[in-house]
Amino acid sequence: MTTMRDTFLSTMEGELAADPLLALVLADISAGTPQVARAAERFGDRVINVGIREQLLVSTAGGLAMAGLRPVVHTFASFLVERPYEQVKLDLTHQGTGAVLVSAGASYDMAGAGRTHQSPADVALIDTIPGWTVHVPGHPDEVPAVLRESLPGKGNVYIRLSEAANAEPHHGAGFRTLRSGRGPVVLAVGPMLDRVLAATAGLDVTVLYAATIRPFDAAGLRAALRSAGTDAIVLVEPYLAGTSAPAVAEALPDIAHRLRSLGVRRDEEVRLYGDMADHDLAHGLDESTIAAAVKAFG
Amino acid sequence: MTTATTMGFAELPTLMSRMIGDEKHSAAATSTLDVLWVLYDRVLDTSPERAEDPRRDRFLLSKGHGPMAYYAVLAAKGFIDPDELGTWASAGSRLGMHPDRMLVPGVEIASGSLGHGLPIAVGTALGLRVLEPSPPRVVVLTGDAELDEGSNHEAIAFAARSGLHGLTAVVIDNGSSTHGWPGGIARRFEVEGWAARTVDGRDHDALAAAFTEPHPRRPLAVVATIDPKD
C-alpha cells in the first residue's frame, strides 16, 4: 500500500521540477528512497541531506529561507519537532523566516521501536509558537493537495504524516460534517476518522472531520454545536490528549460547553512495544473505547 | 546619514558610550570591536542602501551577547542613526541586549541563544549558491565559548563536505570556553576540511588579510585571538 510518506516524496519530486525556488532538506531519513534519489540527481543543489544532524537540519532551512528559497524539511516527528524545538522556535519563527515541516512516524507508527521513535507531543509543541498552520491528513490521497497549498508564500506549516489512515480520502477545507445528529459533536482529526465513524455507528451524534487542525475552525465547531443543539464536544486526536482543548475553549468563550478529550495518554508513559493496534488499545484510541467514551459522555 | 558614513574607527568608543556610558567597556562588548570594524570597513560588500539587494554580502552575528560594538559599527556605517543608540535596551527601543533582525536595519539574524548563527549561515550559503551565479559571501561571527554548542559542530562538519567556499566563520577566541579546545580552535575546522587562519584579533591589517586572501574550494575559518583580560 502507498503510504502518506511515499505520496509526499513523489509529490515533492514533481514540485522540485516545477519550482526552481523549492528546496528539500533531509537528515538521512527518506534520503535513500527512489523519489529522493531521482530528485537529487536532477536538482542536487536543492536536495540537501545534512546527515544525522537535526539542529542543522532546521537551522539550514531558516538560512535557505533567508536566501530566498522555500524549504521543505522532512524527517521523523521526534527528530523534526521535539529534538530541535528551539531551532523551530527561533530559526523558523523568531527570525521571521518560514518553512514547511513534513514529519513521518506520528505518535506511534513505529510502535515496536519504542518511546525514542514516538512523538505524541509534536502538535502540542508547535502550539507553543505562534503563526503555524498544522495539517494532519487522514489518507495518502489528501497529501498532494495539502503539500501544494503549503508551498506558496513564506508561512510556517507543519504536515504530520502517519501510516495510520482512513479507507477513503476526504477533501476540502475546514471541519467537514460527515454525520449529523443531536448528541455530542465528535471532532475526528486525520487518521482517527474511520474508527470514530465505526464507534459512533447507530449513535445520534455529529461527526466532524479535520485534516487541518491549525488554524482551528472555530466557526465550523460553533455551527455544528448550534445545529445539533448540544453542549457536548468529544475531541479524538492522534497525538497528546487534549492538545486542541485550549482551541475549543477559545472558540467558545460565550457558550457553556462540556469537553471530553481523547488522544495519546499524558498521565503516564506507555512503555510498550508491539504494533499500532496495541498502542491504540493502550491509549484508548481503539473503536470500542471511543464508543464507550462517547456513549458515557452523551 | 551622510555624516554617519564618514565616521571612523576612532569614533566607535564615543558611539558605544551612548549605550553604556564612559566606564571601562566590558570584555563582551569590546572583544568583537576590531573584527567588526575590519569586516564592515574593508571586507564586506554591503551598505545601508543595499539592505534588500540579494547580492549583498551577509554578516551574521551569532554571538549576540554584548552587541554594543555591533550597534556602534552599524551606526558608524549608516545602517542606524547614531542618535538611536541612546535608546539602547529601553522598552521602546529597537536595540536590545541581543539583536533582532526584524527590528534593526542591517541585522541579518536575531541572536542571543548561542549556536544558531553558523548553522543558519550554512543554509544561507547553500541558498545563495543556488540563486546567484556569483554568490556573495556569508560571514558568521561566533565566540570560542559559543563553540561549545554542538550545533556548531554539525555545521562545521557539513559545510566543508559541501564545499561552501563562500562561507567564512570568524571565531573570537578570548579563552572563555569552560573546557577549552586542546590543539587550538583552528584545528577543529581544518580536520573537517576548512581553510583556517589564526590572527591577532586587534591587528586590522592581519584581520583584513586573513579575510581576503584566497582559500579555494574551502570554507574559511578565521580565529581572532583576543587578550582574555581585555
TrEMBL record, chain A:
Q: Which residues form the Transketolase-like pyrimidine-binding domain?
A: 2-169
Any GO molecular function: magnesium ion binding
Pfam families, alphabetized: Transket_pyr (PF02779)
Q: What is this protein called?
A: Transketolase
From TrEMBL, chain B:
Classification via Gene3D superfamilies: 3.40.50.970
What keywords is this UniProt entry annotated with?
Answer: Thiamine pyrophosphate
SUPFAM superfamilies xrefs:
Thiamin diphosphate-binding fold (THDP-binding)
The GO terms this record gives for MF are: magnesium ion binding
Q: Which Pfam families match?
A: Transketolase_N (PF00456)
Per the database record, which ranges form the Transketolase N-terminal domain? 25-214
- What cofactor does its activity depend on? thiamine diphosphate
InterPro entries per record: THDP-binding, Transketolase_N
Q: Which family does it belong to?
A: Belongs to the transketolase family.
Could you identify this protein by its name? Transketolase
